[in-house]
Design goal:
Blueprint lengths: L18 H7 L1 H4 L4 H11 L6 H30 L3 H10 L2 H4 L24 H25 L3 H27 L19 E3 L20 E3 L2 H8 L7 H7 L7 H4 L7
Parallel strand pairs: 1-2
Helix pairs in contact: 1-4, 3-4, 3-7, 4-8, 7-8
This protein binds manganese (II) ion (2 copies).
Length: 266
């Protein structure tokens, strides 16, 4: 059950309304990294897991994100409705609000309608929590840009709170993954990986492009400095495999191209 209380999670006091800035704020109302996307993602994901603890966390955070949506809505409302009429006229001539009217709309800062394809959910709790960490990074990044552009103190305070909570959520998702032993374990599910699982292929080479780090070093990884040579060794000392030969020139090797004549059954 959802109960709405008409109390904001954080106060919104816009002192200098700016409809042009409100347009940018739409990114967090009806945009890909916005609060509606976050809320619906987590609430949906909560039904994917049998873990009562993780389900409860996803429902708590998903509901908090709806509260964030409300804060962004109030910001947009105050930046549009309270603007002086001369500012409104000027801004509205060049913004989305000219057509839609003041207040929030389910569109992003470029006027694109909110899209269900922004949701990232898939049915495996580890997969979902990993996607959530990336989603929070997207939201935090958008808020950082908005804070950098915000000229109004009241707006900035509300945005700093919203950004802070995305940091908190990231941490919660990381702890949840840790509780499942899945924070620093890349493999989940039933896959039996093949022999390449610990190989790092140095496939982009050239000046400055052979960097080394823990992502391509022992003990986690065996560094394959020359992947082409490695491939030759793995598949018969440099001789192309038969299937490669056939693919390169089917006719010459009596492959598929020659064996079949037009109209012939196979
Ligand atoms: Mn949020
Ligand atoms: Mn969040």
């Amino acid at each position: 059950m959802f109960i709405h209380k008409s109390v904001l999670l954080h106060e919104v006091k816009v002192q200098k309304p700016d409809p042009v800035f409100a347009e940018k704020l739409l990114e967090q109302f009806g945009g890909a990294t916005g609060e509606l996307t976050a809320s619906l993602t987590y609430l949906t994901q909560s039904f994917h897991t049998d873990s009562p603890g993780i389900r409860d966390m996803l429902q708590d955070i998903g509901t908090e994100e709806l509260g964030h949506l409300e804060i962004v809505a109030m910001l947009i409302e105050q930046h549009t409705k309270r603007a002086a009429s001369n500012l409104q006229d000027k801004a509205y001539q060049s913004t989305l609000f000219a057509i839609r009217g003041p207040g929030p709309h389910l569109i992003d800062s470029k006027g694109l309608s909110w899209d269900g394809r922004y949701l990232n959910e898939g049915g495996n709790v580890v997969r979902d929590l990993r996607a959530d960490i990336a989603a929070e990074a997207g939201a935090l990044n958008t808020y950082e840009q908005l804070i950098a552009m915000a000229e109004d103190d009241g707006t900035r305070q509300a945005l700093v709170h919203l950004a802070t909570r995305e940091v908190s959520h990231t941490h919660m998702f990381m702890e949840a993954l840790k509780s499942l032993n899945a924070l620093d374990q890349p493999l989940f599910g039933d896959l039996k990986p093949d022999q390449t699982v610990n190989l790092y292929f140095n496939l982009s080479s050239g000046p400055g492009a052979d960097q080394r780090g823990p992502w391509n070093s022992e003990p986690a990884f065996q560094y394959v400095a020359n992947p082409l040579q490695h491939e030759m060794q793995e598949h018969g000392g440099g001789q192309p495999t038969q299937s490669n030969e056939m693919r390169m020139n089917p006719a010459e090797h009596g492959g598929l191209g020659q064996a079949r004549k037009p109209g012939e059954q196979h």
